[in-house]
Specification:
22% helix; 375 residues; Rossmann fold; Elongation Factor Tu (Ef-tu), domain 3; SH3 type barrels; alpha/beta; five-stranded parallel β-sheet
């Protein structure tokens, strides 16, 4: 495993999970001076059954105790609300589907947290993300690489990191498989060795997503229509739906006579389009319906790891986290955007999500999807 040339003061973001715990242990084994920081990013309903930050802090403190390192509890809730949550709500109200984890990494974990760590005299910060950083000696630039465990790679969520941030960051578990991380945790007796991986964001937790949004976004009901313009039911508000959504449409028993293009009359319904102007939710039957397939997308709000866009080329991209890289042709439109053309259609490409561009194992950066179309 790669080590740094000299011993350093490294501040580790200890989340209470097993990945950050093993990260801290690996750095200590390499002889670094390790300090743990627990980031509290949400406190609106901190005592509810859905937000586990109190339990997570207890777990993080127990890990610090076993490893013999200091831990500090730092509250970034105000920063999070201003920089991440406000943007999250704005995007949903505009009918898009944002990815708050990406914004949280760029604005909190590798900005507010990094600034705090530097004030503590840290030379580097480290997190439990499955990714890697490599200095390209030919260019002098830091590259963001995929984690070695393909099923856990988190470079998609980190694509907005810049050179200054990457130069200060270590991702020790990015060199390992998750099974190896669990094995190490068990072997060294970490109290959270078998702790389940967290899913989702603290401010939503395990609660139903619509129930959460209800507290912040007013319901504006409107028609649900099929591709022929027939009204099939009522939606509760376009903000509460995302493209490709199959559950929670309330039209499960509706059949479309003579349904074609992508499924028989019993095929499931999927959200295919959202017309904000007319407050209409358009749905189609069948996973492979043409309205759900896109060969072309345009993205804005760009962020490139190297600081500038790559040259036009055949690269690969992800339009959502849990998907294989898809071959595409990259074209820079201007300083504001880029286009991707896919030989193979991509399913339910969703405005607000991120299109992240790769050259092999190197994550180049990406942008927020603005629009998509069939060709």
């Amino acid at each position: 495993m790669a080590t740094t040339a000299h011993k350093q003061r490294v501040v580790v973001g200890l989340s209470g999970g097993v990945d950050s715990a093993v990260t801290a242990w690996l750095l200590k084994q390499q002889g670094h001076e390790v300090i743990g920081i627990f980031m509290k990013n949400w406190e609106d309903d901190d005592d509810s059954e859905y937000c586990s930050s109190n339990i997570d802090f207890v777990d993080a403190a127990a890990v610090a105790d076993v490893l013999g390192i200091e831990i500090e509890h730092v509250n970034f809730a105000a920063d999070y609300k201003d920089r991440v949550f406000a943007e999250f709500l704005r995007e949903y109200q505009a009918g898009r589907t944002p990815n708050p984890d990406i914004l949280c990494n760029a604005e909190i974990k590798f900005k507010a947290f990094l600034d705090h760590a530097l004030r503590l005299g840290a030379e580097k910060i480290a997190t439990g993300h499955y990714a890697r950083v490599r200095l390209n000696n030919a260019t002098g630039l830091h590259e963001l690489l995929k984690g070695l465990d393909p099923s856990k790679d988190q470079s998609y969520f980190l694509h907005r990191l810049n050179q200054a941030q990457l130069s200060k960051t270590l991702f020790p578990v990015g060199e390992l498989l998750k099974t190896e991380v669990r094995r190490i945790a068990t072997e060294i007796g970490l109290p959270n060795a078998k702790k389940k991986d967290s899913t989702g964001i603290c401010f939503i937790g395990e609660r139903p997503f619509r129930e959460f949004l209800n507290r912040y976004i007013a319901k504006e009901p409107g028609p649900i229509k099929d591709e022929k313009g027939r009204v099939l039911g009522q939606h509760v508000g376009l903000s509460f739906y995302t493209l490709g959504q199959r559950q929670g449409l309330g039209i499960g028993g509706v059949k479309a006579k003579g349904a074609q293009r992508g499924g028989g009359e019993h095929a499931p319904w999927f959200v295919a389009r959202k017309d904000m102007e007319k407050n209409t939710l358009w749905v189609v039957q069948g996973h492979d319906h043409p309205w759900l397939q896109s060969h072309h997308l345009q993205a804005q709000d760009l962020s490139w790891v190297a600081g500038s866009a790559p040259a036009a080329a055949t690269l690969a991209a992800k339009t959502r986290y849990r998907q294989a890289d898809a071959a595409c042709t990259f074209t820079s439109l201007d300083a504001e955007g880029f286009a991707l053309d896919f030989p193979q259609a991509q399913w339910a490409v969703t405005p607000g999500q991120s299109a992240v561009v790769y050259d092999g194992e190197v994550c180049l950066g990406g942008g927020v999807i603005a629009s998509a179309r069939a060709a």
